[in-house]
C-alpha cells in the first residue's frame, strides 16, 4: 500500500464522524438542517480537517446526489484566471439536482490562486450564488483578497489536540494490525504538530518497515535525530566537555546526514527544557536564532554549530561561577 493511503482510507465520511473542531462542526450541521449555506472560507494549518469538513458537509447535504452536486479543484495546480473563466463558471452555472437548490465547489489551497484569478472569482461568486456555493480552503487567509473574504463566512480551524491524534493513531494501528507503543505515539504526535495527515503518513511509513512501531522506528523513518541525542550534546557542553559535544554534533551532520535546519530546531526546543534561569534561556535562544540566520544565509554549518556550542559553554561557565548548575 502506497504511503498516504491510510490518510484517505480513515478520513471521516460524514459530519457525525468528525471527532474534533466541534464548534465548526456544529455550525456546519446547522447548514445541513436548513439546507442552505453562504460561501465559506476554511482557514488553518495543513492536515487539520478543512477539506474533510467540506466533503462531509457536502455528503450530508446532497445524499445520493453528491457526485453530481460537488466538485473540488486544487487551486495550487489550477491557479490561473482561465480556470475561473472555464472550469469554475461551467460548473457553477448548471443547476443542481435534488431538493438542495445549489451545488458546492471547493477551491482547495485557494491562497495559491493568482491575484487576477481571485479578482475574476469574486464576480463569479456573486453571479452564480443561486446555483453554486463556494468553499475556499487555505492555510493563510491573509493571502485571500478582501473582496472575497467579505463574501464568505469565515471558519478558523485549529491544530488538533494531542489526545485526538493519539486516539486516532491507536485506532488505525488496531485496524491495520500494527503494534504501536506509547513512546511511538508520543514521537508521532510531537513531530506532527497537530497535523493528522502527517501523523497518519508517519505511522504508515514506520509500519511498512516493521509491524512493531516504537519511538526509535519513528525517528528512523522521519530522518531526524532523537531528542535525547540533542540533550546529550547540550549536557556535555554545560559540563565543560566542549570537544566531546562537538564530536557528537559533527557525527550527526557528517555520518548520519541530519539536516542542519532540523538540528537547530531541536536545539531551540531543548533550550526551553533546561533547568537554568529565565534570563539565561533568553540569551541562549538569541544565540540559536543568530546561528539559524547565519546558516540560512549560506555560512558553513559545522563552523556555526561549533561557535554555538562554544557560546553555550561560556554561558555554562558563567552559571557555574554563579553556582546555578
Structural account:
By secondary structure, the chain is an alpha/beta fold. It folds into 3 domains: 136 residues, Rossmann fold (3-Layer(aba) Sandwich); 61 residues, Orthogonal Bundle (Helicase, Ruva Protein, domain 3); 95 residues, Zinc Finger, Delta Prime, domain 3 (Up-down Bundle). 58% of the residues lie in helices and 10% in strands. It is built from 16 helices and 7 strands. The strands form 2 sheets. It has a 5-stranded parallel beta sheet with strand order 2-3-4-1-5, with helices on both faces. The mean pLDDT is 88.
Task: Spell out the key features of this protein.
elongated; Helicase, Ruva Protein, domain 3; 7 strands; alpha/beta; two-stranded parallel sheet; 325 residues; 16 helices; Zinc Finger, Delta Prime, domain 3; 5-stranded parallel sheet; 3 domains; single chain; Rossmann fold
Number of strands: 7
Q: Give the name of the CATH architecture of the largest domain.
A: 3-Layer(aba) Sandwich
One letter per element, helices H and strands E, the order comes to HHEHHEHEHEHEHEHHEHHHHHH
Number of helices: 16
Query: In which range does the helix fraction lie?
Result: 55-70%
What fraction of the residues are assigned to beta strands by DSSP?
A: 5-15%
CATH evolutionary superfamily of the largest domain: P-loop containing nucleotide triphosphate hydrolases
Regarding quaternary structure, what we see is single chain
Q: Quickly count the domains.
A: 3
Largest sheet: 5 strands, parallel
Amino acid at each position: 500500500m502506497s504511503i498516504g493511503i491510510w490518510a484517505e482510507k480513515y478520513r471521516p465520511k460524514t459530519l457525525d464522524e468528525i471527532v474534533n473542531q466541534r464548534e465548526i462542526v456544529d455550525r456546519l450541521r446547522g447548514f445541513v438542517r436548513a439546507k442552505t449555506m453562504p460561501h465559506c472560507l476554511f482557514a488553518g494549518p495543513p492536515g487539520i480537517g478543512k477539506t474533510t469538513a467540506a466533503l462531509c458537509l457536502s455528503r450530508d447535504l446532497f445524499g445520493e446526489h453528491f457526485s453530481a452536486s460537488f466538485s473540488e479543484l486544487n487551486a495550487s495546480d489550477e491557479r490561473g484566471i482561465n480556470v475561473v473563466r472555464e472550469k469554475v463558471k461551467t460548473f457553477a452555472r448548471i443547476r443542481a439536482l435534488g431538493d438542495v437548490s445549489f451545488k458546492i465547489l471547493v477551491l482547495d489551497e485557494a491562497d495559491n490562486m493568482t491575484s487576477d484569478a481571485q479578482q475574476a472569482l469574486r464576480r463569479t461568486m456573486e453571479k452564480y450564488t443561486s446555483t453554486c456555493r463556494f468553499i475556499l480552503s487555505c492555510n493563510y487567509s491573509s493571502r485571500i483578497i478582501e473582496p472575497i473574504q467579505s463574501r464568505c463566512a469565515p471558519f478558523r480551524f485549529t491544530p488538533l489536540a494531542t489526545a485526538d491524534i493519539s486516539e486516532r493513531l491507536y485506532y488505525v494501528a488496531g485496524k491495520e494490525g500494527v503494534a504501536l507503543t506509547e513512546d511511538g505515539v508520543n514521537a508521532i504526535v510531537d513531530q506532527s504538530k497537530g497535523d493528522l495527515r502527517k501523523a497518519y503518513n508517519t505511522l504508515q511509513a514506520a509500519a511498512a518497515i516493521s509491524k512493531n512501531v516504537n519511538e526509535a522506528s519513528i525517528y528512523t523513518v522521519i530522518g531526524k535525530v532523537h531528542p535525547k541525542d540533542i540533550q546529550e550534546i547540550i549536557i556535555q557542553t554545560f559540563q565543560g566537555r566542549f570537544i566531546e559535544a562537538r564530536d557528537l554534533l559533527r557525527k550527526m551532520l557528517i555520518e548520519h546526514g541530519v539536516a542542519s535546519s532540523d538540528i537547530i530546531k531541536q536545539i531551540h526546543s531543548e533550550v526551553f527544557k533546561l533547568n537554568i534561569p529565565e534570563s539565561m534561556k533568553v540569551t541562549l535562544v538569541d544565540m540559536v536564532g543568530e546561528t539559524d540566520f547565519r546558516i540560512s544565509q549560506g555560512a558553513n554549518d559545522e563552523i556555526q554549530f561549533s561557535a554555538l556550542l562554544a557560546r553555550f559553554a561560556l554561558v555554562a561557565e558563567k552559571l557555574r561561577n554563579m553556582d546555578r548548575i
